[in-house]
C-alpha cells in the first residue's frame, strides 16, 4: 500500500484540536495557510514566552493514523485532527524517518522533517490517561519514546488533500534519528 494523506486539518485560533478540511495550502517557509502555527518564527505558545525569535521548525505537524488504531485497542477513541495535527497519514513510518527527510505530497508540496513532536500535558486534558500512551520512558535505558507525530518545515508550497500520495526522499550522508523540536 502506498503511503497516503488520510486527512488535513487547520485552525486559525489556538486550540488543542484542529477541524478537518477538504484541503490545506502549504506556504513555503511558513506552514499551513490560515493556521495559527504558521510563521517564520516559533508559534508554540509556551515556547514563544521565552524563545520568541527561534526559527519555526514546527510549521506543520504530521501524525500516523496507525497510532489511532493502537490507541483504539487501549480504549481511546482518537480521530484525525484531534491531537492538533495538520496532516494525518497511513502507510508511512513517520517516527522512523531521519532528520532532513523530504516528504513529497500531492502535486508538488515538499515538507522537510525537522523532528519529533514533544507531547504535552494538554493531551491528558483532551483525554485523561492518553499522555502516557504517546509518551513513555524505557525503565531500563531511561530513553524517551515519543509517538505523537513529527514536525516539519515547508520547502515547497502546494495544496494537500486526503488521498494524496506521499513519497519519501532520504537525505544524503549518514542519517540522524529524529529528536524533539
From TrEMBL:
UniProt-listed InterPro entries: MoCF_Sase_C (IPR005302), MOSC_domain (IPR052716), Pyrv_Knase-like_insert_dom_sf (IPR011037)
Coiled coil: none
Gene3D superfamilies: PK beta-barrel domain-like (2.40.33.20)
Residue ranges occupied by any MOSC domain in the UniProt entry: 18-169
PANTHER family per the UniProt record, alphabetical: METAL-SULFUR CLUSTER BIOSYNTHESIS PROTEINS YUAD-RELATED, MOSC DOMAIN-CONTAINING PROTEIN
Name the record gives this protein: MOSC domain-containing protein
Organism phylogeny: Bacteria, Bacillati, Actinomycetota, Actinomycetes, Kitasatosporales
Amino acid at each position: 500500500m502506498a503511503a497516503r494523506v488520510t486527512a488535513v486539518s487547520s485552525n486559525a485560533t489556538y486550540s488543542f484540536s484542529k477541524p478537518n478540511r477538504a484541503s490545506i495550502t502549504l506556504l513555503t517557509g511558513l506552514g499551513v495557510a490560515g493556521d495559527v502555527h504558521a510563521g517564520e518564527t516559533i508559534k508554540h505558545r509556551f515556547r514563544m514566552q521565552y524563545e520568541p525569535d527561534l526559527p519555526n521548525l514546527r510549521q506543520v505537524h504530521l501524525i500516523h493514523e496507525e497510532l489511532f488504531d493502537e490507541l483504539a485497542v487501549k480504549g481511546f477513541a482518537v480521530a484525525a485532527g484531534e491531537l492538533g495535527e495538520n496532516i494525518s497519514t497511513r502507510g508511512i513510518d513517520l517516527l522512523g524517518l531521519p532528520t532532513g527527510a523530504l516528504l513529497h505530497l500531492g502535486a508538488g508540496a515538499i515538507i522537510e522533517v525537522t523532528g519529533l513532536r514533544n507531547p504535552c500535558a494538554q493531551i491528558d486534558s483532551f483525554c485523561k490517561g492518553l499522555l502516557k500512551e504517546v509518551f513513555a520512558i524505557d525503565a531500563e535505558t531511561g530513553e524517551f519514546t515519543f509517538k505523537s507525530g513529527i514536525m516539519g518545515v515547508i520547502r515547497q508550497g502546494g495544496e494537500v488533500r486526503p488521498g494524496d500520495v506521499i513519497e519519501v526522499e532520504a537525505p544524503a550522508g549518514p542519517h540522524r534519528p529524529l529528536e524533539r523540536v
